[in-house]
Automatic annotation (TrEMBL):
Mg(2+) binds at residues 196, 248. It comes from Haloterrigena gelatinilytica. Relaxes both positive and negative superturns and exhibits a strong decatenase activity. This is Type 2 DNA topoisomerase 6 subunit A. The active site is at 98 (o-(5'-phospho-dna)-tyrosine intermediate).
Length: 363
């Protein structure tokens, strides 16, 4: 992060706190309005193909005890973040929660990490500055990259040039909290394959899939962290690489794909920064369960409810998804990525992925 960015983030935070003083001077009750972060206030922006917040807002106002308490916590958090930027330090979301216990006003302290996380999200939205620019980071997501990619990463100890195959072990290159600190130097990649599970990522790397097919393999680590989604978007936008998403064959995994392609409720204010609408779903498809006779588990009631909900979700209202979801509701089965191993450990890299990638026009 540059000094200019740090200064801009600091000024935005100070301006936000100054608004409270301005409201006092005008005889107004101090308040802060933020978009309501619920499913009912999420709109699908057809122009950009991502989720964005609607017009509904929630107001934190000092005209109630709970509202005044939230503004107090916001003020203390702003003070902490400004000081952190001035000192060129960083901290985790978890540390912020614990650190608040040292604040001199008991009412300003957070009662849970959910509360402190929500506060950072509020400040992000209202200030227009990302938490990465506040020098706030989540706990390690564990997401990694393996593939024919040469990068330069800015670190506290200077720049590091790294080849994400030649200079890393089997685990791959650890995605940093702020992937905008990465400069792409060179690459020989043909596409990006985002993989839900660590077990499948390890299988692909062990089988040499990234080398044979010139693929950048991105481990999503379940529901992907913001840094993972941001780096994936950069691969597409800046390197012009197709992105495909490989998950388990269940409704919850389809939502992992949805967060990569279209964004999520919690980070809808950053959808255009994080989402890759051009990303395609490669599998496991319900059709694959039938075609490859994969081992399965029965759908639970919650699975069925989730699938039916997805039929009403704008992200999945396409002929492809309606056909696949209706097929899954009909067969009443779900399947994991690793179920492909029922045909042998090499089946996924020798048969399944090449066939699907060819069908999709990626290979």
């Amino acid at each position: 992060m540059s000094a200019d960015n740090d200064q801009q983030a600091r000024e935005q935070l100070i301006d936000l706190a100054a608004q409270f003083y301005d409201q006092f001077e005008l005889g107004e009750i101090p308040h802060m309005s933020v978009p309501t972060r619920t499913k009912n206030n999420i709109e699908y922006d057809e122009e950009s193909d991502v989720w964005v917040y609607g017009d509904r807002e929630s107001t934190r106002s000092a005209n109630s005890v709970s509202g005044a308490r939230k503004l107090l916590k916001a003020t203390y958090t702003i003070d902490f973040l400004v000081e952190q930027l001035e000192q060129d330090r960083s901290s985790t979301l978890r540390e912020l929660y614990y650190l608040s216990e040292s604040w001199d006003n008991d009412e300003a302290q957070f009662t849970s990490q959910d509360e402190s996380n929500s506060m950072v999200e509020d400040l992000e939205i209202v200030s227009g500055v990302t938490r990465e620019d506040f020098h706030m980071r989540p706990e390690e997501s564990g997401a990694k990259v393996m593939g024919p990619l040469h990068i330069r990463e800015q670190t506290k100890r200077g720049d590091r040039d790294i080849h994400c195959q030649l200079d890393v072990g089997q685990g791959g290159y650890q995605i940093p909290n702020n992937p905008d600190m990465i400069e792409f130097l060179d690459n020989d990649a043909d596409f990006v394959l985002c993989v839900e599970t660590g077990g499948m990522r390890d299988r692909l790397v062990e089988n040499g899939f990234d080398e044979e097919y010139d693929a950048i393999v991105v481990h999503l680590g379940g529901q992907p962290a913001r840094a993972t989604r941001r780096l994936t978007k950069r691969f597409h936008d800046e390197l012009g690489l197709p992105v495909v998403v490989f998950t388990d064959g269940d409704p919850w995994s389809y939502r992992i794909y949805g967060s990569v392609a279209y964004g999520s409720i919690k980070s809808a204010h950053l959808s255009e920064y994080l989402a890759t609408p051009e990303a395609k779903f490669i599998g496991i498809q319900p059709a694959d369960i039938v075609e490859y006779d994969l081992p399965t588990d029965p759908l639970s009631d919650s699975d069925i409810n989730a699938l039916e909900s997805e039929l009403e979700d704008p992200r999945f209202q396409t002929d492809y998804w309606e056909e696949q979801i209706e097929l899954q509701l009909d067969i009443e089965k779900k399947s994991e990525q690793q179920s492909l191993a029922s045909h042998g450990l090499d089946f996924v890299t020798d048969t399944y992925l090449p066939e699907r990638l060819s069908e999709m026009g990626v290979l």
